[in-house]
Write a structure and sequence with these properties.
By secondary structure, the protein is an alpha/beta fold. It is built from four helices and five strands; from the N terminus they run E-H-E-H-E-H-E-H-E. It starts with a strand and ends with a strand. The model has no long low-confidence stretch (mean pLDDT 96).
Length: 96
Amino acid sequence: MLHTLSCSPFGCSRWEHLLASVVPSDGVLLFQNGVVAGLQNSLPAKQLLGTGVTVYAVIADISARGLTQNMDQRIRRIDYSEFVALTVVYTPQWAW
């Protein structure tokens, strides 16, 4: 399953539900304000990466928020065409 997160975990009521729902074979895609969940040394990044899922973040959204140098290195950076390709790899998708 591909879980997509577009809201910041700091203001998202769905964050805890996402963490409880993922399994290691899932992928999580951070985009829009969701990329904040990938900040290095942050609690959300530690929580998310601790689940064993593969985490992706959209480069354009990281750059737009000035976070390029602050993202956890374990998060895979992708562009929007790769985002589309992930929907083929991970089915179904769930938006948070």
